[in-house]
Amino acid sequence: MIEGVSVLMEQVHPPVTDLRLSKILAALADPGRLATVRTLAQKGESPCTRLQQDAGLQISRSTFSHHQKVLREAGILLVRVRGAERILSLRRDDLDSRFPGLLDLVLNTPEKLI
Amino acid sequence: MIEGVSVLMEQVHPPVTDLRLSKILAALADPGRLATVRTLAQKGESPCTRLQQDAGLQISRSTFSHHQKVLREAGILLVRVRGAERILSLRRDDLDSRFPGLLDLVLNTPEKLI
DNA sequence: CCCGTATGTCGATAACCATCGAACGTCGAA
DNA sequence: TTCGACGTTCGATGGTTATCGACATACGGG
Fold first, then answer.
1. Residue of B64, B76, B66, B67 lying closest to B21 (CA atoms)
2. Across the interface, which of A21, A104, A105 has its CB nearest the CB of B114?
3. Domain spans of chain A, in order of start
4. pLDDT tens-place values along chain A, 114 residues long
5. Which residues, at least 6 apart from B87, have a Cβ–Cβ distance to it below 8 Å?
6. What is A19-107's CATH number?
7. Which residue of chain A comes nearest to B31, CA vs CA?
8. B18-106: what fold?
9. How many CB pairs under 8 A join A and B?
10. What residue has its CA nearest to the C1' of C27?
11. Contact flag, residue B32 CB and nucleic strand D, below 7 A
12. Is the CB of B34 under 7 A from strand D?
């Protein structure tokens, strides 16, 4: 870095009271992000690179990072740091309490109906 | 029209077996379209102009026509012709049978959480 | 303290989408 | 048959989004 100032790269997670349906629908409307969410639900929690592979997304790391950001800022993903990795997981309880049935519906829909 | 060929303007309605979650989520992700669906559920069936007014959408007729098309092609709306009007209604049964709980969730979500 | 792995950020580009006005088609009524 | 109301289609425009490569940052291990 040129300047001596550190860039923190802090992860922004909206509080549960800030979750909005329109944001969540917009985040889930992308096929790649929908696949990411569904894969994450199967695998439990997972680091970024692993999740991208498991979801079968053939996109660059920077693009996946962008999608992860959209899902996180919509309140769908939780990101925590473990060493050099970012561990992703679903905010199941928050989503269920605010929009009951939404996540279950998305996860239980057969692959063919996606 | 310049040519003598008639333009039919037929309404395309996908059969229930063609409905796809990603299409439906994408259609509902737009705030104006979401408002349209929620208003239509309250009012029952309604012609275009009336629905646009009831939903409070301050957009041109051509733009509303575009949104109506997106909702129709996603399988959310049914359009039937009555004289010079197009009467819009929700495909409740089709949506419920294919994606149980989705429409209810969208309709029951409080305005403040949209 | 250098290195490899993991990931975020930036700037650019292309694709997509919402929006509009203008022109057109269709219908019912005058 | 002329008119007005209703709605669609078209072409253009602007804004948003998906995508990438290059670079920067962070961590743990040698």
1. B76
2. A21
3. 19-107
4. 333 344 445 788 999 999 999 999 999 999 999 999 999 999 999 999 999 999 999 999 999 999 999 999 999 999 999 999 999 999 999 999 999 999 999 999 999 999
5. B45, B46, B47, B79, B80, B81
6. 1.10.10.10
7. A22
8. Arc Repressor Mutant, subunit A (1.10.10)
9. 54
10. B84
11. no
12. no
